[in-house]
Specification:
This protein has about 160 residues and is of the alpha+beta class. It has helices at about 1-20, 30-45, 45-55, 75-90; strands at about 55-60, 65-70, 90-105, 110-120, 130-140, 145-150. It has a single domain, classed as Roll (Nuclear Transport Factor 2, Chain: A). Helix 2 runs antiparallel to helix 3 (about 45-55) and helix 3 crosses helix 4.
């Protein structure tokens, strides 16, 4: 009897794990719109609108070996300018969103992981085909803004 219960629990656990992995994540429209706008602005290199409308201040970027603290709009613009100059020198063209890897929401914050691809100006893939970045969005009176980012690949490549 105990063996049957154990096997049943193991079977249910296995089904739940498979379901968890295969579930498609569908963030709310407000989140999708923010990232579609962000991706377009990033692809266009529109530093002004990203710093004013997308990134919150202060903004934190957690890289593999450091934490970048951008306390003002000027800090954000400086970071974006440096990043885009490097991307431009590497022939960056545009980015596309592939899918959402994870999503969690509470009262004031949303944590989301995005899978995306960068392309060169000739539309060939730039670097890794499937890149990931995790974001913390803060809910503000004006909507959502990106408060923190964890790029899982180097931003400038």
């Amino acid at each position: 009897m105990m063996k049957n219960i154990f096997l049943l629990l193991l079977f249910l656990f296995n089904i739940n794990c498979k379901t968890e992995i295969s579930n498609k994540i569908n963030p709310p429209e407000e989140v999708v719109n923010l990232f579609e706008n962000y991706t377009k602005l990033w692809s266009d290199g529109n530093l002004e609108l990203i710093s004013n409308n997308i990134y919150d201040q202060p903004m934190f970027i957690y890289s593999n070996d450091s934490i970048l603290y951008l306390k003002s709009n000027e800090d954000v613009k400086s970071f974006l300018s440096k990043t885009f100059k490097t991307l431009e020198s590497n022939n960056y063209g545009f980015s596309t969103i592939n899918r959402w890897e994870s999503y969690r929401e509470d009262k004031n914050y949303i944590i989301i992981e995005m899978n995306y691809t960068r392309f060169l100006k000739d539309s060939s893939i730039m670097g890794e085909r499937f890149r990931k970045a995790s974001y913390i969005l803060r809910k503000t009176d004006g909507g959502l803004k990106i408060n923190s980012m964890i790029p899982h690949t180097i931003l400038e490549q």
